[in-house]
Amino acid sequence: MPSFVRHLLLIVAPLIAAFAILPGVYDNHLLLFNFVIFLILAQGVNIIYGFTGYLPFGYVGFFGAGAYGFAIMVMHFQTPAPLAVLVAGVVGVLLGLLLTPLLRLSGAYFAIANLAAALAVLHFVANPALESITKGPYGVALNGTFNPTLAYVGAVIILALTLGIVVFLRNSSFGMALQAVREDAVSAAMAGVNVVKMRVIAWLASALVAGLAGGVFAWYVSVFYPDNVFSNDFSIFAIVFALFGGVATIMGPIVGVLILYGVYNLIGFTTPQYFQLIYGVLIMALVLFLPAGLVSLATRRGWNVP
Amino acid sequence: MSPDAKPILTVNGLVKRFGGFHALDGLSFHVSSGEILGLVGPNGSGKTTAINVISGLYAPDDGTLTYDGASIGGLASHKLVHRGINRTFQIPKPFLSLTVRQNVEVALAYGRVGVAPPKLSDLLEQYHLAEFADRPAADLNSSQQKMLDLVRALATRPRLLLLDELAAGLNPTELDWIAGHIKALAQSGLAIIVVEHLMGFIEQITDRVIVMNAGKEIFEGTLAVAVKVPQVIEVFLGGEHGA
Amino acid sequence: MLAYPLIAGVLFGLYFSLLGIGLNLVFGVMRIVNLAHGDFLMLGAFVAFGVFYLLGLDPLLAVPLAFVLFVIVGIVLYGLLVPRLQQSRDPEMLSIILFFGLSQVIEALVTIAFGTSERSIPSRELGSLMTAAAKALGAKPEGGPVDILGQSFPAAWVISAVVSVIAIGLVYVYLYRTRLGTLTRAVMSRRDEAFATGINVDRVCAAAFGIGLGLAAIAGVFAPFMFGSVTPAFGADATVTAFVIVVLGSLGNPLGTALGGVVYGICYMLVQTFLSSWADLLPYVLLILVLLLRPSGLLGRKVRVA
Fold first, then answer.
1. A296 to chain B: which residues are within 8 Å by CB?
2. Alpha carbons A256 and C294: distance in angstroms, whole number
3. Rounded to two decimals, what is the model's pTM?
C-alpha cells in the first residue's frame, strides 16, 4: 500500500471520523470546534514552517482577514455562508500574495515582518474610518447566517483538506523538495528546484487554510471584534502546538494540539494570569528541552514518524 | 568523443563586479563535450566566481555565456540545471535533515527533463554511499558529503559539470579513485570544468588548463607547458601586480 | 505649525533610540530575538514606581538602580537560557518562541503581584531632585514646561531625551573604547571566527545581554512619562516599536539605532498631528516597507535577504 494511502487511512480518516461523531456524544460543541480550528491552524503553520522554515509569527493575519472576508460578504452582499467561507479562503490567499515579498527576508526578519503585517491588517480593519465597510473597532454581528452545526461541518471539511495537503507534502517529491529548500536554497536550486516558486506555493497553501479557518470561525461565532479574530494568541498557539508535537510530520501537530490544547482546557480560564504563567513556563521548557518536538523522542530511536 | 568537437560552452569577455572589485574582468574560454578543462590560478583570481556565474548563482555584469548554441547569461540556476549544467560546491551543503537517499531523490525528481534518470542505487554504490542511504546526510563526514554533492549533481544528468575543489581534503587513495570516476564521466560525453589547487590532480585528469589571474585568463594549453611560461610562474610565485 | 511636531519628534525620537538600542545589541551580538524586550521596559517602569511611591524619591534615581539590577538579571538569565538555546538546530527562530514564553511569564508575574491597572507618575516629579538642589543653591528653579525655539514641552520629555543621549553615548564608548566592547563588535561581525580566535564568546555575550536588558530597563523608567501610563501588558507593543526602530537604523550599529529612533519619532509626531486616525498603522507599515525596500536599514551594509 503506498504510504500516502496508508497515511490517509490510518491518520486522517480516523481523526476526521472522530470529529464527525464526537458532537453526538459530547456536549461541549464549542470546545470541539476550537479543537478543529487549532488543528487546522497548527497544520497550516506546519506547512509553512515545518516544510519551508519560515516562521509565520503573524499567521493570525490570514485568519482574521478570512473572518472579515466572510463578514463583509455576508453583511454587504448577503452571500450564503458556505460561499462566504470560500471567499474567506480567497481573501487569505490574496493577503498571502500581497505579502509574498516578505519571503525575500530570512530568519527572524521574516517572522517580525509577518507579525507587523498581521498587526497592520488588524489596525486597518479596526480603523474607525472604515466603519461603513468593516464596522471598525465596534465588531460585527452576523445573525442571518448563525448556524453552529453547519459551521462545524464546514470546519471538519477544511481540516480534512488541510490534512490532505500535509499528507501530500509528507509523501511527495514536492514536499521533499520544499524541505530541501529549507535546508539549503542554493543546493536545492542546483538540484533543479525552482526555489521561489516552491516557497510561494507553500506560503499560499498555508494562507489558504488559515483564511478558510477564519471564515468558518466567523460563521460559527457570528459576533466578534477585530481584537478577537486578530488576537496573536492564534499565531502563538498554532506555532507552539505544531512545535510541541514536531513539525514536518503529519502526526506532530495533531499530537501537539490534542495534548496541549487539552491541557489548556483542563487548567481552565478561571485565573488568566496563572494560566499565562504556566503557559509561559511550558513554552520555555519546550524550547529548552524538546526543541524538535515530541516526535523527536521517537525519531531519535530511529523510528519513522509519519 | 574528441575534445576538438564544437564547444558546448563558450565564455566570452565575462565580467563580474562586487562593488568596485572586478572578480571577473573579461574572462574568455571554451570547453567541449568529453573534455576535462582545468581552471587554475592563485587565490582570488576568480575561479570560483567563474563557476558561480556559469551555474547561475550570480548574473554576469558583462560578456556572454553561450551554452549549446544559446545565450544563458543571467538564467536562474534551476533553469540551467534543467538544460544540463550542474556543479559541486567547495563546501557542500547537503540537505542535512533528509536521508542520503532523499537528497538524491530530490535531484532525480527535479533535475534535467526529457532524459532517463540514472539509477539511484547505482549512483550510491559507485560513490560509496550505499550503506548510508537511509541515514540523515548530517551523519556523513566531509568527504562523504562531497561525494553526495557530486551524486546530487550527477542525478540531474548534466552535460556540463563544474567541479569546485572536489579533491581538497581527500587522501591519495581517494584521489586516484575519484580521478578515475571523473575521467570515466568525460569519456561518457560530459564536458567537465575542474577548479583545483592540487596540481598533481590537475595534471592527472585534465586535457587542457586555463590559468587565471585577476579575473581573466593569462594562459591556455596543457599544464606541462603552462609551468614553463614566465608569466604563469610569476603569478604563482606571488606577483600580485599582474592586473 | 511644523515646529512643534518636529521638535517633539526629535525629543521622542531620542527616547525611542534608547528604547531600541538594547534590542539591537542583543540581536546583533547573539542573533537572539528578545521578544521580552518590552517586558523589561515594563519592569523598568515598575522600578520607577517603586522608587517614587515606596521610597518617595525622584524617579530619576530609578535609572542607575534599574540599570544595575537588570544587568545582573540579564547575566543570570543569559546563563540559564542562551547556551542551551544555541545547541538547538534553529536558535534564531526558536529564540522568538523562547522569549515569547519569557514575556508571558514576566507579564503574568507582574499581573499577579500588582494587578492590571494603569499606573503613572505625575510628570513634574521627574527630576524633582535637581529642582530641589537648584533651589538649595539659590538658583531660580525651572520646574514646569521647557521652551525650545518658542515652543513649550513638558520637562519630562526633555529629561528623557537628555538621558537617552547620554546612555547612547555611553554605549558607543563601551563598544568603541573598551576591550570588552571591541570583542563585542568582533562577535557581532563574525561569530564563528570570533570563536576560532579564542575570544570568550560566552562572556562577551553575557555582558551584551545584561547591558541590553539594563538599557531596556532605563528606557522603562521614562515610559510612564512618555506614554502617560504603563500596565503589565505594555511590553508587547513596546517590543514591536523597538523592532521598528532597530530595523529602521541598522543592526549592530548604535548610531544607526539613534538615527532610526529620531526618524521614527518625527514620523510618529507628524502622523499624530496630521493623520491621527491612521497613527496606529504607522510602526507596522514602516517596518514592512523598510524591510522590503532597504533591508539593511538606513545606515546598514549587512544583507538579510533569503
1. none
2. 38
3. 0.88
